[in-house]
Amino acid sequence: MAGTFSQIYIQIVFAVKKRDSLINRHWEEELYKYISGIIRNKEQKMLAINGMPDHIHFLIGMKPSACLSDLVREIKKSSNEFINEMKFSKYRFQWQEGYGAFSYSHSELDNIIKYINNQKEHHKVQSFREEYKEFLNKFQIEHKDEYLFEWME
């Protein structure tokens, strides 16, 4: 798009179906590289990616030509297939429906990148459920708890 200039930064968060802890440290880096490749192939920019055994976070620089819901759908579909074809998990892998998408200004990038890169330490003191609800409240996103991810206690 000639003459179109933008700076859109989006953090995307989604979880493993039923919040099962299926993402293993032995292959999570391969998953992150695979997802980063999808982002690159869709002409977007990966700024940070990390997660836990039951969910991931990633921050992208997004062009206005991209449709966020289409991009997330492609990432989830393709990474599901990748994980199952590679037999990384002895269980059938699947992402839960839905995702969180949170926008940031350029001045917030360093902090959010550090936050994403520090997921393993962060979740020693805060659960994913608490974290996700905090995002929804911070960004003033109306929601009903029953429509959030399936929470396994």
Task: Tell me the number of strands.
Answer: 4
Measured by DSSP, the beta-strand proportion falls in: 15-25%
What is the C-alpha radius of gyration, as a whole number of Å? Answer: 15 Å
- Largest β-sheet summary: 4 strands, antiparallel
Strand order of the largest sheet: 2-3-1-4
The class by helix and strand makeup works out as alpha+beta
Total domain modules: 1
**Helix segment count?**
5
Arithmetic mean pLDDT: 90
CATH homologous superfamily assignment: Transposase IS200-like
State the end-to-end distance: 47 Å
Q: Which topology does CATH recognise?
A: Alpha-Beta Plaits
Query: What top-tier CATH class fits best?
Result: Alpha Beta
Based on the structure given, which CATH architecture is correct?
2-Layer Sandwich
Shape: globular
Helix content: 25-40%
Question: Which features does this protein show?
Answer:
153 residues; alpha+beta; Alpha-Beta Plaits; four-stranded antiparallel beta sheet; 5 helices; 4 strands; 19% strand
Question: What layout of secondary structure does this protein have?
Answer:
Elements: E1 8-15, H1 28-41, E2 45-52, E3 55-62, H2 68-85, E4 100-104, H3 109-117, H4 119-122, H5 128-138
Antiparallel strand pairs: 1-3, 1-4, 2-3
Helix pairs in contact: 1-2
Question: What do you see in this structure?
Answer:
The protein is α+β, with helices and mostly antiparallel strands. The protein has one domain (8-147): Alpha-Beta Plaits, CATH 3.30.70.1290. The chain contains 5 helices and 4 strands. The chain has a 4-stranded antiparallel sheet, with helices on both faces. Helix 1 packs antiparallel against helix 2 (68-85). The N and C termini lie far apart (47 Å). The model has no long low-confidence stretch (mean pLDDT 90).
